[in-house]
């Protein structure tokens, strides 16, 4: 895309703060449960699959494939919204960047890239681009 | 314990307005309440249960204060625009338990007068909602959410834009007979697929209208229903559920109707083949298609073929739907399509639909809604209604 829209800032909370601190360093974290072994999205302290509190952060591959996508054309700059199926399993709502809409396809391999929001002091948010 | 035959819909009213810059939001609720009570042949003093949802300005307590109602049972369930559909079942349950005898359900709003950018601008519901930080940066308004589902369905099952367009075409065939409808012109498949893209693959004509207004229904004990002058429309079965991201295992091609539908059919003791008329939530064409599959009217993935060639047009196809023109053409008041779905089903069961779209001998109808957003969190409610002998 030639231009990108202004991204609304995120407000980390005590539960999500480690994710956003890692994002400032360009690291993409996932949370995985030791009790059932599954990674989930979005990150939670209690595993959403088994409610065990035995969960921990791990650095993820940052790779995935496009599960579905759309182009929202209402704004000044068209925005590609997508679900990306992460290599670790969970599907994540996100935006695709650095790609034209007619070059996007379901199943396409993508990688995480962090984008600054409109708050210069806030953390960047994970989006995905073709790999 | 069942709500089967425990309650009846005795009053139904749809506000005739579709643009109400000269009315307050609360006033619209009051006008539909008065309309439904008058339709039933009851008085406001008979009401002992009140139900409203997220569209009620200031919430339930503000509405009761404004309407000056004193009741002994309340319910402000909010699972999106489907809420009044599940509230009919909640009212029936409350009546079965003796918590109230006559329940009023109102829905109204004025997004058109307020120039709300419905569907194309993200809305934050609550800053501390756990999902906001994982969604809001990505700008996923309602249209994008349903477009993601449509794209995935096309990918998995070969569904086409032309097949989705048939849903709008059917709604437009019905809306031509409704003088209050926002869109009264009959459209073609080509009109739909050549209208501008809002969120690929959904076009402008794949989307519902934005309208002001509202509606209300009155649910009452069967003895009361039989004492009134109106045809008796009985609640026969209901089901409700919600769908969400499931920890990251979201399936965009399935809605919570896969749970609410079977529950309603089991309670009613009927099958999809028994349904003569169907009111289906039609925020977007894809919503209708997914619901038909998930309720069991056709196999998963076969919805495109099922809706094609006028199958949903009254007098033409196998399953007449939304004979008032639905949200796609007639009315989607307060950005919520639940109440109008109930009202048109009541008209059909009473034999009071427009003669051009009235289903002959309409004895059993199904009402189903999908509120919220398919790509994040949505509510589902199924209601099976019958005309009592
Ligand atoms: Zn677990």
Automatic annotation (TrEMBL), chain A:
ChsH2 C-terminal OB-fold domain: residues covered: 57-115
A matching Pfam family: zf-ChsH2
UniProt cross-references to InterPro entries, sorted A to Z: ChsH2_C (IPR002878), ChsH2_Znr (IPR022002), NA-bd_OB-fold (IPR012340), Thioester_dehydratase-like (IPR052513)
Domain ChsH2 rubredoxin-like zinc ribbon: 20-54
SUPFAM superfamilies in UniProt: Nucleic acid-binding proteins
Protein name listed in UniProt: Putative nucleic-acid-binding protein
Organism: Wenxinia marina DSM 24838
TrEMBL record, chain B:
Gene3D superfamilies: 3.40.47.10
Domain of life from the UniProt record: Bacteria
Enzyme class label: transferase
Every Thiolase C-terminal domain range: 249-378
GO molecular function (one): acetyl-CoA C-acetyltransferase activity
SUPFAM superfamilies: Thiolase-like (SSF53901)
The name this protein goes by in its record: Acetyl-CoA acetyltransferase
Classification lineage: Bacteria, Pseudomonadati, Pseudomonadota, Alphaproteobacteria, Rhodobacterales
């Amino acid at each position: 895309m030639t231009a990108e829209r202004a991204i609304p800032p995120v407000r980390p909370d005590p539960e999500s703060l480690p994710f956003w601190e890692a994002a400032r360093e360009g690291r993409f974290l996932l949370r995985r449960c030791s009790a059932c072994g599954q990674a989930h999205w979005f990150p939670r302290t209690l595993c959403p699959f088994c409610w065990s509190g035995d969960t921990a952060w791990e650095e993820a591959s940052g790779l995935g494939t496009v599960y579905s996508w759309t182009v929202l054309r209402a704004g000044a700059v068209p925005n590609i919204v997508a679900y990306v199926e992460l290599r670790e399993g969970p599907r994540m709502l996100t935006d695709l960047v650095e790609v034209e809409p007619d070059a996007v396809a379901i199943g396409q391999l993508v990688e995480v890239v962090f984008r600054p929001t409109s708050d210069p002091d806030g953390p960047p948010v994970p989006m995905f681009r073709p790999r | 314990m069942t709500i089967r035959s425990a309650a009846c819909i005795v009053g139904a009213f749809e506000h005739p307005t579709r643009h109400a810059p000269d009315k307050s939001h609360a006033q619209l609720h009051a006008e539909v309440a008065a309309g439904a009570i008058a339709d039933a042949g009851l008085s406001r003093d008979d009401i002992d249960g009140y139900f409203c949802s997220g569209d009620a300005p200031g919430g339930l307590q503000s509405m009761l204060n404004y309407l000056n109602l004193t009741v002994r049972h309340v319910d402000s369930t909010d699972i999106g625009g489907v809420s009044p559909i599940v509230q009919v079942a909640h009212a029936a349950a409350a009546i079965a338990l003796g918590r109230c005898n006559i329940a009023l359900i109102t829905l109204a709003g004025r997004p058109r007068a307020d120039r709300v950018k419905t569907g194309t601008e993200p809305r934050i519901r609550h800053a501390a909602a756990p999902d906001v930080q994982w969604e809001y940066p990505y700008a996923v308004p309602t249209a994008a959410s349903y477009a993601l589902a449509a794209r995935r369905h096309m990918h998995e099952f070969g569904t086409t834009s032309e097949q989705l367009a048939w849903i709008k075409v059917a709604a437009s065939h019905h809306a031509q007979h409704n003088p209050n409808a926002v869109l009264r012109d009959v459209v073609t498949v080509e009109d739909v697929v050549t209208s501008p893209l809002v969120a690929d693959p959904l076009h402008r004509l794949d989307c519902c209208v934005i309208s002001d207004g509202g509606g209300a229904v009155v649910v009452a004990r069967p003895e009361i229903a039989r004492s009134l002058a109106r045809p008796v429309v009985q609640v026969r079965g209901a089901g409700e559920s919600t769908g969400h991201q499931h920890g990251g295992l979201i399936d965009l091609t399935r809605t919570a109707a896969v749970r609410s539908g079977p529950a309603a059919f089991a309670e009613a003791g009927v099958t999809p083949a028994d349904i003569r008329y169907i009111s289906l939530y039609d925020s977007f064409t894809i919503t209708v298609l997914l619901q038909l599959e998930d309720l069991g009217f056709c196999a998963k993935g076969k919805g495109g073929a099922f809706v094609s060639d006028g199958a949903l047009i009254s007098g033409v196809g196998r399953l007449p739907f939304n004979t008032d023109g639905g949200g796609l053409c007639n009315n989607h008041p307060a950005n919520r399509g639940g109440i109008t779905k109930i009202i048109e089903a009541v008209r059909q069961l009473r034999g009071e639909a427009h003669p051009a779209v009235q289903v002959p001998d309409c004895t059993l109808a199904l009402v189903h809604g999908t509120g919220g957003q398919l790509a994040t969190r949505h509510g589902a409610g199924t209601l099976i209604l019958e005309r009592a002998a």
